[in-house]
TrEMBL record:
Ranges where the RCK N-terminal domain occurs: 369-490
Alphabetized UniProt keyword annotations: Membrane, Transmembrane, Transmembrane helix
Membrane recorded as keyword: yes
Region (Disordered): 589-611
Pfam families in alphabetical order: TrkA_C (PF02080), TrkA_N (PF02254)
Residue spans crossing the bilayer: 275-294, 331-353
Name this protein carries in UniProt: Potassium transporter TrkA
Cross-referenced InterPro entries: NAD(P)-bd_dom_sf, RCK_C, RCK_C_sf, RCK_N, Trk_Ktr_HKT_K-transport
Biased composition (Pro residues): 600-611
Species annotation: Micromonospora gifhornensis
Annotated ranges, domain RCK C-terminal: 508-591
């Protein structure tokens, strides 16, 4: 009985039992590498952002054996886009609810960090509270559209970071829409640096070359010769450049609206095409009968036209004295009148309804020129629309749903919203795509995005198209086949910042150049590493890594270091690099890799489990 009472007390006090269980799991499941715990990160997501964050995590750890990744995904894959569940070496947990039970199955107790990457602010907040019950001291990275909640999240979870992939990626879309380089700027080592075209800055302001974008088929990033780069990192000199300057020019060049064109468009939208064709055919029949009536009654065409209309619309008294041909025409005209009067009524009713709908959905808009059309008012489209509006650029938005996420903001900003399918030519013409500056297509459907882009090009073959595509290989094929040279992946651009926040590392800046994403970061050189004792010249690699600045321990940054200088332990290297080049540099700057020796009897980690 005493044993049963003890069991009852244990089962009725879960708040006391669970911490004991968590500590036991934490102690038993941590693999150790020479006495150091193996870092464990849990990722929760179901879209390409989760996929790219997992890839960035795996690539950013110099000693891959020290890193363990668990990915929690829904039971069923909800889109054909990759979400990371097929990446090798990643433990996958299938679960449709992010609660304490799911997090314990993922061994969250003792984990180094948790990333909540679902597109649901409230859902991510609930999941964070559940995770805190399992592991109170967890490093937390939360994806949120409403970054205004960041301060509240940090009060609840002190060791947390709130990021918005839309906010991170939107500037690249805005810059591409205006035909400029991405508006990247950051402060480091006492300097403010920004991305610009070489022609927009003074030669003494250039810090280093970033890319040669003059070849429309391929962007050459980090070329050997800095002078070959037309896109550079420059030191700020207090002058507006890049996107801001382009937006000012565009706002000044905007032409006035044409009210006459607006009236003509309203007339065209008054009735549907079917009713219009029917009316035209019926009037043609009446005109033909009028000609026959003139011949039968031996009257002039003007009199015949008058008599025909009167007969058709009001009828005519029968007259047996008329000839047979005239009587036949009169009967047919009366029958035509029976069809014409209801048809006129239908045209009026249909026209009024269509006009009201067109006004409500934005299909009757003034003709515009030099504006930017944004398709899709989801997370990224809303950010792009708001930033363009902040720059003073006129925007017209298109979305299938009148209650889309950004529809309310569009109304507050006075941005016209066309409700319709952007893949249809009529919808694009309603937004004046033929005379716009650029078409930014950022919905979440790759197929719909491509159709809208191709229809926009069909309307205006000189149109600048900025296309959002999730599949990078598909984007490259689209660029080659259709000449749409500006495509972006929000997840690809944002993933490095999420991975760095999860690892508690600081990515100073992310620089999008075409299909590439360059990272600016600082690398510390460890004692005994491959870089220790080598010259600074060993850091740079053509097309991969470029050294920006070097600092000895406790000293200031040298922005023009002698590349013959020998690297010593504790040195800090500020570099701009592609992802693969940075990963290789991190491996060379890390301590010598030691062999992983898991404890005897530790079972292998499962590849995948299902609930």
């Amino acid at each position: 009985m005493r044993g049963c009472a003890g069991f009852d007390r244990l089962t009725t006090m879960p708040d006391m039992a669970e911490p004991l269980l968590d500590r036991a799991l934490r102690a038993s499941r941590r693999l150790r590498v020479n006495g150091e715990p193996r870092a464990h990160y849990v990722i929760c997501g179901q879209d390409p952002l989760a996929y790219w964050v997992v890839r960035a995590l795996r690539g950013s750890e110099p000693q891959a054996g020290r890193l363990r990744i668990t990915l929690i995904v829904p039971g069923r894959q909800r889109s054909p886009a990759p979400d990371g569940r097929d990446l090798p070496g990643v433990e996958v947990i299938r679960a449709d609810r992010l609660d304490e039970h799911t997090f314990r199955r993922a061994n969250l107790a003792g984990a180094a960090g948790l990333a909540l990457l679902h597109q649901d602010d409230v859902g991510n907040m609930h999941a964070a509270l559940c995770a805190q019950e399992v592991e109170p001291g967890l490093r937390l990275v939360v994806r949120m559209f409403n970054t205004g909640l960041a301060n509240g999240v940090r009060q609840i979870f002190p060791d947390s970071a709130v990021l918005s992939d839309a906010s991170i990626a939107a500037p690249a879309f805005v810059a591409a829409a205006l035909g400029e380089v991405a508006p990247t700027h950051f402060r480091h080592g006492g300097r403010t640096l920004y991305l610009a075209r070489r022609e927009d800055v003074r030669p003494n302001e250039v810090v280093c070359g970033v890319a040669d974008t003059r070849d429309p088929q391929q962007d050459l990033v980090l070329p050997t010769d800095d002078r070959a780069a037309d896109v550079v990192l420059a030191e700020a000199a207090g002058r507006p450049v890049g996107t801001e300057l382009a937006a000012r020019k565009l706002a000044r060049a905007r032409r006035r609206r044409r009210p006459v064109a607006m009236v003509l468009r309203a007339i065209r939208s008054f009735a549907t095409r079917k009713i219009g064709i029917t009316v035209i055919l019926l009037l043609a029949v009446v005109g033909l009968l009028g000609g026959l009536y003139a011949n039968a009654a031996h009257v002039s065409l003007a009199d015949a036209f008058y008599l025909t209309l009167v007969t058709t619309l009001t009828g005519q008294d029968p007259d047996t004295a008329k000839g047979a041909a005239e009587q036949v025409v009169q009967v047919i005209l009366n029958l035509a009148g029976l069809a014409l009067i209801p048809l006129i009524t239908a045209v009026v009713v249909d026209g009024v309804v269509n006009a009201r709908l067109a006004l409500h959905t934005g299909r009757i808009l003034p003709e515009r020129s030099g504006h930017v059309v944004v398709v899709g008012l989801g997370n990224i489209g809303t950010r792009v629309m708001a930033q363009l509006n902040d720059f003073g650029v006129e925007v017209v938005a298109i979305d299938k749903n009148r209650d889309a996420r950004g529809a309310g903001l569009a109304r507050r900003l006075g941005v016209p919203l066309v409700v319709g399918d952007a893949a249809e030519e009529e919808t694009l013409r309603a937004a004046s795509v033929a005379t716009c500056q650029a078409l930014v297509v950022v919905s979440t459907d790759d197929g719909a995005n491509l159709r809208a882009a191709l229809n926009g090009r069909a309307i205006n073959d000189e149109l600048r198209v900025v296309l959002r595509l999730f599949d990078g290989h598909f984007a490259e094929r689209v660029q080659r086949a259709f000449g749409i040279g500006t495509s972006r992946s929000v997840s690809y651009l944002a993933a490095p910042s999420f991975a760095a926040a999860l690892l508690d590392r600081a990515v100073i800046a992310t620089i999008p150049v075409g299909r590439h994403a360059l990272l600016v970061t600082e690398v510390a050189v460890a004692a005994g590493s491959a870089l220790d004792g080598r010259p600074l010249a060993a850091v740079g690699r053509t097309g991969s890594v470029r050294l920006l600045a070097h600092a000895r321990p406790g000293q200031r940054y040298d922005w023009s270091p002698d590349h013959r200088m020998v690297i010593v332990a504790g040195d800090r290297l500020t570099v701009v690099a592609r992802r693969a080049g940075l990963n290789a540099l991190l491996r060379e700057a890390a301590p010598p890799e030691e062999e992983i020796t898991p404890p005897v009897g530790t079972p292998p980690l499962p590849r995948e489990t299902e609930e």
